[in-house]
Amino acid sequence: MERNPRGRLAALFSAFFLAATLAGCGGGSVDGASTTSPITEIPGVTAPDDASFVDSTSPIGFYTDGSIEEPTRLPDESAGLLKIFRLRNRNYASASMVRTLVLAAAAWRAEFPTGDRLQVGDITDSNGGYLSGHASHQNGLDADVAYLKSNHVERDPNTNGPNGFAESFVVNGKLTANFDLPRNWAILRDIVGRGNVGRIFVDPAIKAAFCRNAASLDPDLSLAARTEVLRRLRPYDGHDDHFHLRIKCPNGHPKCVAQTEPPTGNGCADVTSSLAGAADLRTPEQISDDDLGLDEG
Ligand SMILES: [Zn+2]
Fold first, then answer.
1. Residue 257 has what pLDDT?
2. Whole-angstrom Cα distance, residue 259 to residue 32?
3. 236 CA distance to ligand 1 centroid (A)?
């Protein structure tokens, strides 16, 4: 797999965390809105200034009890991105979600120009609210995304996805050979790098694999940035065939109800000890995430 130099992007990413540290901002503002990323240059994208970005849609309420007014739609395709399960008509989203996915996918594609694209499944219904098969996905701020594959096979996007994401990448607690660890790490890093991610739910074994390998996969990334990416990856059973991206309430939307921030630190000790003990992985913090295992894609 050809891999483009990414020193500039790593530097920008580091600058984001440095700026966040200097500004003393670790979380949301008073109304719980997101802290937007000052990363303004991403290869292959003409990026508007994140700090001045205004979400024109209206996410309302909480992820599991909300709606969205005037949603926009994720494009069927953009650089590095493919909308799948199109016949489900669940491509409605906040502008913030669309922007996060499109810009992150483009940045990631510049580093990995070939192979399967980022395949996005369910986001939200046209009016938001309850979405069958899911506890959340109600206000345009949640999206399910297929993991990237070593065999690079993309699915037919023009179906209703009767079998969901279908392919599990964790068998007996271990990743399968078809889980493309470097590319999956890179896209998750680039998504978190947008600066408005609340949580990304992944299988506990997948988080543990990133904990073990992130430093060697991404030697140019600062420790602070690596910790921040790992922190946002929340171990959650039921996410062995897709990850669930949850972004924060956009700035300027006081009707959007924020979720508490995940604990500081990379969370790696928790996941490795849980796996070692084969204990119940549903910590109180996870239960409060309130995405109660219904997230079948
Ligand atoms: Zn989901």
1. 97
2. 8
3. 11
